[in-house]
Design a protein that fits this description.
With 198 residues, the protein is α+β, with helices and mostly antiparallel strands. It has two domains: 46 residues; 147 residues, Protein Transport Mog1p, Chain A (3-Layer(aba) Sandwich). Helix content is 35%, strand content 39%. Strands 3-4-5-9-8-7-6 form a seven-stranded antiparallel sheet, sandwiched between helices. Keywords: Membrane, Transmembrane, Transmembrane helix. This is PsbP C-terminal domain-containing protein.
Amino acid sequence: MASFVKVVSINKKKLGVTIIIIGLMIILFGLEKNFDVKLKFTALMQNDIKSLTQYNGLKGRLKYELPSSWSCRNQEVFGDEIVYHSDFKSADGRINGFVQVWNLKGNLKEFLRNSEIISKKQNLYKDYNIRQIDINGTNGYLLEYTITKEIGDSYRGIEYFMKQGGQFLRFSFFVKDTDFKENMPTIFETIVKTMKYR
């Protein structure tokens, strides 16, 4: 009987330690999320991005934000593949890119593979990498690559492709290799996470 009581008290101690560990894990998870937000805010501030401006497209169905100091210009689209296109440029001209909405015919990953084959015939690529991502609960792909040229500057390309039903969203950023900074991918991801489409 005495040994049974001892076993119960040891299990209570283990239970107490387990509860403390679980509590610490929950606190650390919360701190990590808070740290992630602060890190992204710091990356924006270090690049002199003080505020974001919201842009709308496709009669308000598409919303996204860009740094207020950047210029943004919608382009007329023709045909049935690309239904929305808007170019943007940072104030210093070092970051260029665009936002697009495409009608999706077939599989997005297959579309990206075919695009890679065509692009490799036209350009010289190095460090080409594609990986699956989740942005605000939307599945997609992140493409990172460097376009090299025999004459002229090399460019880094960072492109997000997110599937939305029978369409996909494309958010593309291009920077000269010599102008690229380590915190730019964090800035780009922060911008892409502002995108909403319904």
